[in-house]
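Project standup — Tuesday

K.O.: blocked on the structure for the chain from last sprint. Re-posting the sequence here as requested.
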Amino acid sequence: MSKAPRTPPCLNADLTGDPLPAPLQPRGRGARSNRSNRFEDKAYEPFDDGWRDTDPQPEQLRTVTLIDSSRSIVTRNHSPDISFNQSINPYRGCEHGCVYCYARPSHAYWGYSPGLDFESVIFKKPEAAKLLVRTFMDRNYRPEPIVIGANTDCYQPVERKEEITRDILKVCAEFHHPVSVITKSALILRDLDIIAPLAKKGLFRAAISITTLDRKLARDMEPRAATPSRRLETVKQLAGAGIPVTVMAAPMIPALNDRELEAILQAAAEAGAVSAGYVLLRLPMEIKGLFKEWLATTRPDSASHVMSLVRQTRGGAEYDSAFGKRQRGDGPYARLLASRFRRAIERYGLKTRGPGLRCDLFERPLGHGNQPSLF
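H.V.: unblocked you, prediction finished:
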């Protein structure tokens, strides 16, 4: 796997997260820096030497797309916090640029920064559909639901051109394999011709993430994702096509969007969602520094209060990775949020889980080197 030239770090934050004067935040990007990842043995600290213009303009940061030549496509997990065992991620990195994204630290494994690199250096898997066919054709394979986009969004902007997610869905339709999708994008509506027939057979459901109903806050946190109103319209159109939709109010961020929990769930129910979930803000590894940089530049007046509440939900730390706590947190604030969620879904007639998907329809079609059955 070749490595593209590293994008230059933004000059508005040092390696400790302290803001520097005269920020040069790239337009349409979430992270405020491109600090070295945790595996690098050398790091450097940008500084203002006075040679820049007195009124600098935000720089443009172009997206680079590289090929991921992985030899397998299905990822398996055994986490008790996750409701599925199999997932597919057509892309590594995500142009949506959500500053809180829990997938950011994974970019460090490839030698890139979880900051601006994560949202501007995207790895694509053009052989994904072929690899999935090979997986399904394996005689030892036993079907169980697959989630597409569990790590990074499978309908991010690059999908418009690449159509890797669409090709994966075509394979699932051909094999009658149960599949679901998690996304923030309205681009999922492009594939109604595939997913609506799957849903009719009990083989598909969708999850739409709605973090806030505030357009300004959404633009700040998720600069290249669909607007909140567009996501609700997507829920409505999916539901109208007979597709079960779960809305994820995630992440809930103390003193920032947590007050919107009930409003999000109400809007989701009115749009036709059948179930809902939530996740408390997670700040593992490099995300801690990136999120605090973002707070310092976009919400400086409330930054200390937000982080104080975050620590209250994590036993005084900024993150706790323990199973059973990493998604929900602990302490009075976390328990109050959980209680509000339970009351809200009861009030609006939502369930905590979407309908189950069928596995009994799976079959290996002829045309892939498969021999017909004698019976």
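K.O.: great, moving the ticket to review. DSSP finds eleven helices and ten strands in the chain. The two ends are 45 Å apart (CA to CA).
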